[in-house]
Amino acid sequence: MEREREDEVICAGCGITIQTEDKEKPGYTPAQALQRDVVICQRCFRLKHYNEVQDVSLTDDDFFKVLQQLGERKGLIVKIVDIFDFDGSWIDGIHRHTGGNPVLLVGNKVDLLPKSVKRSKVIHWMKKEAKDRGLKPVDVHLMSASSGESVQETAEKIDQYRNGKDVYVIGSTNVGKSTFINRLLADFGAENDMMITTSNIPGTTLDMIDVPLDDGSSLFDTPGVMNSHQIVHLLDQKEMKKMTPVKEIKPTVYQLNEGQTIFFGGLGRIDFVQGEHQSFIVYMANDLYLHRTKTEKADELYKQHLGTTLAPPSENNAHLFPDLEKKEWKIPEGKHDVVFSGLGWVTVDGKGAVVRTYVPKGVQVSIRPSIF
């Protein structure tokens, strides 16, 4: 480990270097807190005094440094993904850094899916997706950290697969990882004086918190990795509320002909370029404004009404919003989802179609067989 600079202050809770400039970055604490005899970062403070974990985000490089260290240790890795944004919340290349440790894959936010969706079908789909991406989890489980659905069962699976070893909870930002850990802390009655211990992963200067377990092992909370291809990183908190689902999704069904377009607020759009009359089913936040129009009018409509009729983004931020980039897709025969990372998806149900998608530069779009 590199020698610390003399002016550095180290968090007594997790070992990270304290900083007072950026609340969103690891190690933040208010400047006045530096006057205390024992200095801890705001994240450790929230955990110690309120049994509450706050999520922070790391760059990909920093996150994989954490993973590399986990691969050198023995324990259970719990990888949490957002079911509603599986592609956007997946961490690429994780299978190369597990060191042979078992991985329990947990799909969070199951409460957002329509009740008609069979949980077994979602689990089967997640297993296939994980395998296709090089990961073979020991098990796949669904839960809702927010509502508490199946959180107890998730805890039981963790205990089953960890075999008395440490547990490392990982995930990208906004998947609900910290909500899950907070729920565990509340449900199992953790005491304040047992909350904070110094991270014993050698050489790390990253904000990793460990929560003691009954048998002397620990559950480690790792900072979330930020996936830059998610649309959420282009929005402020108020705008995010409009496009982030908080309750069961009510799909919106459109019967479209060639030459029609659906806008998702001002965040993106899909054009029906070619194909027979067919249904387009939108699975996005219930509060997100959807607008159907003729494709020939779409460009001008976007230019004139971005930030007003087509929002988010808000009118104040519309001029800062990046231009939309288009891509054309040939949809295979059968039911397929056109997935907009961090936003949701559109199920195209018909005899094949050519569609054109528009999203801000860097936001990922993909096609998959329909999961419903």
TrEMBL record:
GO MF terms held by the record: GTP binding
CP-type G domain boundaries: 64-228
UniProt xrefs under InterPro entries: G_CP_dom, GTP-bd, GTP-bd_ribosome_bgen_YqeH, Mito_lipid_metab_GTPase, NOA1/YqeH-like_C, P-loop_NTPase
SUPFAM superfamilies the record matches: P-loop containing nucleoside triphosphate hydrolases
PROSITE patterns per the UniProt record, alphabetical: G_CP
A Pfam family matched in the record: YqeH-like_C
Tree of life domain: Bacteria
NCBIfam families (UniProt xref): GTPase_YqeH
PANTHER family per the UniProt record, alphabetical: GENETIC INTERACTOR OF PROHIBITINS 3, MITOCHONDRIAL (PTHR46434:SF1)
Name by which UniProt lists this protein: CP-type G domain-containing protein
Protein source organism: Salisediminibacterium halotolerans
